[in-house]
Amino acid sequence: MGKMTIVYTAVFLLACLVLGVLVGSAKAHDWFPKECCSGQDCKAYSGLPRRIGDGYLLNDGRTVPMSRVRNDGQQTDDRWYLCESTSKHIYCLFPPPGGV
Question: Which of 28, 58, 82, 89 could form a disulfide with 45 if both were Cys (CB 3.0 to 4.6 A apart)?
Fold first, then answer.
């Protein structure tokens, strides 16, 4: 195998990897409603929100009122999702199916 063949193969594999990541990211946000996500505001929440009164308490001490807790039936995994701005304004919190 020549050096150019190796270089072309490496570039092709890298392009496939980048494209796969981009397509995967787009699909990850397909099910979030517009008012919760602008394509980058929602991500899996690593903590476990605790139910308090009329909402949920996050690990960092912020509370999410029930009016921002969504269960639209689109989610298929068992993870919590938090949609927030870069300034930490919470748009929506999605519990796993059966989590509310």
Answer: 82
